[in-house]
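Below is a concrete protein record.
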Amino acid sequence: MSLLELEHVSKCYGRGLSEQVVLRDASLEVEAGEFVAVWGRRRTGRSTLLRVAAGVETPDSGVVRLDGQDLSGRGCQLLGSAIGYCRKTFRSNEGPTVLDHLLVGQMARGVSPSLATNRAWDALERTDAGSSAKLKPSELDCGETLRVGIARALALQPKLLLVDEPTLGVDLLARDEILRLLRSLADEGMAVLMSTGDTACLAGARALSISDGEIHGMPTHELAPVLPLRRRSA
C-alpha cells in the first residue's frame, strides 16, 4: 500500500457547453520517501491534481487515499497534519511576522506555544529560512516566500508535502537549492509531490507529465527512473 493513492480520479469545472475536464481518469501512487514531479503546461490540470491529492478539492469520480484512508469527507481533517500543502500566500490576521504565521497554524491545532515555537524554529532552520523569521511576509522575495511556505507546512510534521510550482519566479541558483531541499526531505522519509512547468525542475525526482488532464509516464514507483540532480557548481 502506497502512502498516497489516486485511483481513476476525474474532475470537471462548469456545466453543459462550458464544462471543462481538468482531470481525466488520473491514477498515481507516491511512496513514503519519494520525490515525484508532475510537469505540465498551464491549464493542463497540474495544480488541480495537487489540490485533489491534498483534499482541498473533492474529485467528481475516483478515490484518493492517504495511508489507506479515503480522503472523501476527511480531507480537511488531514490537511495541515498528515498532509502539508505549501501555501505561498499569507493572511494578515495570522500576525505581522513570518514566525507568527508558523505559530498560528500549530496553536490552532492545540500545540502549546512553547512546542509550537520550537517546531517553528526547527522548520525555518531546516529550510534555511531562519533569517526570515522576524520579517514581514511582504518583505520576502520569491525564493524566501517558498522556503517559508515549506517551513510552515513542515512545522505541522506532515507525512506528505505538496508543492505547486516551487521554483516559479526564483533565480537559477535559488531554483537548484530549492530542488535539493525537496530531494533531501524525501531522503529523510517524507513523500514529496510537486508540480512544475519547467522541465529543468524534474531533476532528482520521478518525473511524470500531465496534458489534457491525463497523467503520462509511470504512475507507480516500480522501475520508474529518477532524473539526477545537477552537481553544485564549484
